[in-house]
Design brief:
Blueprint: H1 2-18, E1 23-37, E2 41-45, E3 50-55, E4 59-72, E5 75-94, E6 99-119, E7 122-138, E8 154-166, E9 169-178, E10 184-188, E11 191-195, E12 198-209
Antiparallel strand pairs: 1-4, 1-12, 2-3, 3-5, 4-5, 5-6, 6-7, 7-8, 8-9, 9-12, 10-11
Length: 210
């Protein structure tokens, strides 16, 4: 993660000194609508109740950070780094119909590296994103104490979307999916249940170029 940030900072300095037409940087921020995607776990028996664990509703979060853009011929390369707060919910559905919503919240540093092309004011871009998890809070500890959804601090995903440039302003709408298998298991009643609840989100950003 530190190496990724160092590369971004060095790139910003080099290209700014080389040619302001080829490189620019700015700030960005916005909202995200994130959720946790998982395969349903059916028939969990904790000795008291039998229940299912299923995907719940999404939640709204936010992000704020830096954006840069490097123009190479007709190609736009856009490295970014920003703080992202998001999460999602899972639902614990008991056989008698009672449902308990389990919240998962996380904060992380996201470093996307997007490649795209521009058609007039509209941009199309896509690329990988590395995410370094800073913190996590989860109601899943009510099922298994000390449970951690993100077993690895660094996870990987992808982003793809559209952007519009209005003078020094930029508006972006993207979808982000996860490529990393979280692979944590729940231990309940002496049984192990695989839980791979990968986060995904829709991101809407407003940026300003200096």
């Amino acid at each position: 993660m530190k190496k990724l940030i160092l590369v971004l900072v060095v790139s910003m300095f080099v290209f700014t000194m080389a040619d302001a037409q080829l490189f620019k940087w700015g700030i960005k921020g916005g909202v995200g609508f994130s959720s946790l995607k998982m395969e349903e776990i059916m028939g969990i028996d904790d000795g008291t109740d039998v229940y299912n664990l299923v995907t719940g509703d999404g939640v709204m979060g936010y992000h704020v950070g830096l954006q840069t853009r490097i123009k190479v011929a007709m190609i736009l390369i856009q490295p970014e780094v920003y703080f992202n707060a998001g999460g999602g919910t899972l639902e614990q559905v008991v056989d008698n119909g009672a449902t308990t919503v389990l919240d998962v919240k996380f904060s992380r540093i996201d470093v996307p590296l997007l490649v795209g092309v521009k058609f007039g004011p509209i941009r199309i871009n896509a690329g990988p994103v590395g995410s370094y998890v800073l913190s996590e809070t989860t109601d899943l500890t009510e099922i298994q104490p000390d449970y951690t959804l993100f077993t690895n601090s660094m996870t990987w995903g992808f982003q793809a979307g559209l952007g519009v440039g209005l003078s020094k302003l930029s508006i972006d709408a993207r979808y982000e999916g996860s490529l990393s298998e979280l692979g944590e298991t729940l231990s309940i009643g002496g049984s192990e249940f695989a839980l791979d609840a990968r986060p995904s989100q829709w991101i809407i950003s407003l940026g300003y170029w200096f």
